[in-house]
Specification:
CATH topology: Metallo-beta-lactamase, Chain A
Strand content: 25-35%
Number of domains: 1
Oligomer: single chain
CATH superfamily: Ribonuclease Z/Hydroxyacylglutathione hydrolase-like
Number of strands: 15
Bound molecules: zinc ion
CATH class: Alpha Beta
Number of helices: 5
Order of helices and strands: EEEEEHEEEEEEHEHHEHEE
Shape: globular
Radius of gyration: 17 Å
């Protein structure tokens, strides 16, 4: 198996969807599995986290990096088969938001009346950590020294209501940049370009069509056209547009695919279940 792979477990944004019109790009919300040099990291815990590859369930320990705590990025956590397993350990990293640390954010979400039980009721051992600007993860997903040779994680603040962390993961000579739920504003763009430059794979939010954009410009996302232009500008070697709008059917995304490819060769709409070799 390829040592450097990114698997899209959920490509939908805002709300999960189901039905015959969503089969190709999928209905599960944001979740990505990154494997660099054989070491794994999960990005976000949308409903895609409910369907991880079976071999992942055997890992004694896994890191989960959260971009932010909006519900479409957390809903898969309490029903993830990995956290249903006693003996498993999940190391959760998230930046402070609204005065809440990682643990407080999850506890607010997983508590009555929003959810019947808290994280303590889940069989796995879940541990919480602040997400710093730079972090090295060892094979168990725990913070380690640079010399330990694990995955390097860099993060920077994006533009999204309530805040979001943009993530860059490096290892095995490859790099993956995750920019979901972030508007590439004129103010942010220079720093975002530096952050994403020359990455092996860019995953960039492109929720809206050009027609929808004027009404949706304040929601903290991008048009798919802007996402593709950004992918080209930062010279990403491969790119996928993520966080598909829940009202965008397979037919709508298929119809825009050629335009995206023309704007940025190698750029496509992410598909749930797709495994991308770096
Ligand atoms: Zn979202
Ligand atoms: Zn969000």
């Amino acid at each position: 198996m390829d040592d450097n792979t990114v698997t899209i477990l959920g490509a939908r944004g805002s709300m999960s969807v189901s039905g015959a019109e969503y089969l190709r790009y999928g209905g599960a919300t944001t979740c990505v599995l990154v494997r660099l040099s054989g070491k794994s990291a999960l990005l976000d815990a949308g409903t895609g986290l409910m369907n991880p590859p079976p071999d992942l369930l055997d890992a004694p320990s896994l890191p989960l990096l959260l971009t932010h705590a909006h519900a479409d990025h957390l809903l898969g956590l309490p029903l993830c088969p990995y956290v249903m397993r006693r003996g498993a350990r999940l190391e959760v990293y998230a930046a402070r938001r609204g005065g809440l640390d990682a643990e407080a954010q999850i506890r607010r979400f997983l508590s009555p009346p929003l959810w019947p039980v808290g994280p303590d009721a889940l069989p796995a051992d879940i541990r919480f950590h602040d997400l710093p600007a730079e972090l090295y993860l060892d094979a168990d997903g725990r913070a380690a020294s640079r010399e330990a040779g694990g995955i390097r994680v860099a993060s920077m603040a994006g533009a999204h209501p309530g805040g979001v962390s943009l993530l860059r993961l490096e290892g095995g000579g490859k790099s993956v940049v995750f920019m979901t739920d972030c508007t590439l504003t004129a103010a942010l763009r220079p720093a975002a370009l530096d952050f994403a430059r020359d990455c092996s794979l860019l995953l960039c939010d492109g929720q809206y069509s050009d027609e929808e954009w004027p009404e949706c410009a304040g929601f903290g996302h991008n048009s798919w056209r802007d996402a593709a232009k950004f992918a080209r500008e930062c010279r990403a070697r491969q790119a996928r547009i993520v966080h598909h709008d829940p009202f965008h059917t397979d037919a709508m995304l298929d119809a825009a695919a050629a335009e995206i490819e023309a704007l940025c060769p190698g750029c496509a709409f992410a598909r749930e279940g797709e495994a991308i070799s770096l």
